[in-house]
Hints:
Layout: H1 3-22, H2 26-37, H3 42-66, H4 72-96, E1 100-104, E2 107-110, H5 111-132, H6 148-165, H7 170-180, H8 185-205, H9 215-235, H10 241-265
Antiparallel strand pairs: 1-2
Helix pairs in contact: 1-2, 1-3, 1-9, 2-3, 3-8, 3-9, 4-6, 4-8, 5-10, 6-7, 7-8
Amino acid sequence: xxxxxxxxxxxxxxxxxxxxxxxxxxxxxxxxxxxxxxxxxxxxxxxxxxxxxxxxxxxxxxxxxxxxxxxxxxxxxxxxxxxxxxxxxxxxxxxxxxxxxxxxxxxxxxxxxxxxxxxxxxxxxxxxxxxxxxxxxxxxxxxxxxxxxxxxxxxxxxxxxxxxxxxxxxxxxxxxxxxxxxxxxxxxxxxxxxxxxxxxxxxxxxxxxxxxxxxxxxxxxxxxxxxxxxxxxxxxxxxxxxxxxxxxxxxxxxxxxxxxxxxxxxxx
Length: 268
């Protein structure tokens, strides 16, 4: 086994750890790992990422359910339109994106490049939110806002975006639940895991028949990620959420800049 592949499998463990600690962010690591360490095409990468993150998040969601942390009312109102949007994105939108979108001055914007650039932009936005947004004090005393139009609209937008780039979207879902719906952080993390699990696996089902899948590789990678989520849940008792959030935010920012430079640099 090559060294770069060993790093990739260590990355699978890290994906689970991040999901267990943060309730999201696993796909931020999964997409670059599949694309750059295992040399899988971005389109196939998005499919693999949905399966790994969805399956791993399911484990975390079960543990959160046992603790009574999932707000099913919000999860269903937010998730149902997201499910529909992500399935449509995977089944109908991604397959019709042309291989070459535009060509300007010798620089060709391909489908693979556009997916990775969109992914980098989403990462950039999420990283800045994690770095500069402070946690609310006494957040549990703030009343949750059941703004149904907001949740439905947010679900559709996030569903389409995450469906195209093949991510669970926890790093987008959690800010919506915490900042707009006013859900306490712990419940937001648990509810996000539940939404991610269902949305990702439904999105993955939209790719079945459109892509040949290496089930042996995908199963091994997913099992390692699931082991990581148990480790992440255990470590969450010892790590302060605010410090973890900002550290991960800087990591995501660096990853976003690296992806952008790599994709643009390949065209120069």
